[in-house]
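Internal ticket - ligand job 233, guanosine-5'-monophosphate:
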Amino acid sequence: MSIVFIISAPSGSGKSSIVAGILSHVTNLDFSISYTTRLPRGSEKNGREYFFVSVVVFEKMIRDGDFLEYATLFGNGGDYYGTACRFLEEAEQHGHDLLLDIDVQGAEQVKRKLPDAVSIFVLPPDRATLERRLRNRGSDSEDKISKRLATAAREIENYEKYDYILVNDRLDESIEDLKAIVLSRRLASSGAPLSEADKSMLQAAESFRLEQARERVKPIVASFMSQAQPGLP
Ligand code: 5GP
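stdout (structure tokens):
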């Protein structure tokens, strides 16, 4: 049985870099390339970051039952995003695990269908850091940056629905932390005897469990809530 890992994070929290890092550090972990109706951005290529399809095609796929989950992201202009069932089927066939980079709504749907799926929420160290990162990208207007910050605050409110919480301060550390989570779940499901190194990895992974991370996460969440902008949807 493949293990399904779900990773969610507000935009600007460095999730894409963590995902790229984990895929190059962990073998037999496939990435589910989502379908979306939004237009490609920058250097994005069809079939690499996403499968870019029309609303007509996406809605036919919904009717045909092709999706494990799908959602409409209003912050993204009401575009559809969905995970095709076939990625999980293919991972199962190859004996691989599967990583999904999806939003909170998608994570909830997958958890309902696959209760053993492992969900991870990535947080920026605090609001000021997220704001700085969004600004440094230099690609967004001030208006867009404040909208992204408001969306981030709303998304972060959902962190308690996840199994593990990672705070992305340093990219290399976050990749190692996610690796510990992935490998520890593999170990747990294999039932193999544990070496000393395995035990310390399991211990590291446990420290990112929601229950252990709560105290660390509180001030981060507070930094977003205290500055949430009233009036924004
Ligand atoms: P972006 O348009 O910036 O690439 O992604 C916007 C959001 O869509 C991100 O939070 C990403 O995790 C989410 N997303 C990407 N693919 C899927 C998907 O297949 N299903 C769901 N529910 N969300 C997705």
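Auto-summary: Residues 8, 11, 34, 38, 69, 71, 73, 76, 81-83, 101-103, 105-106 surround guanosine-5'-monophosphate (CB under 6 Å). The two ends are 41 Å apart (CA to CA).
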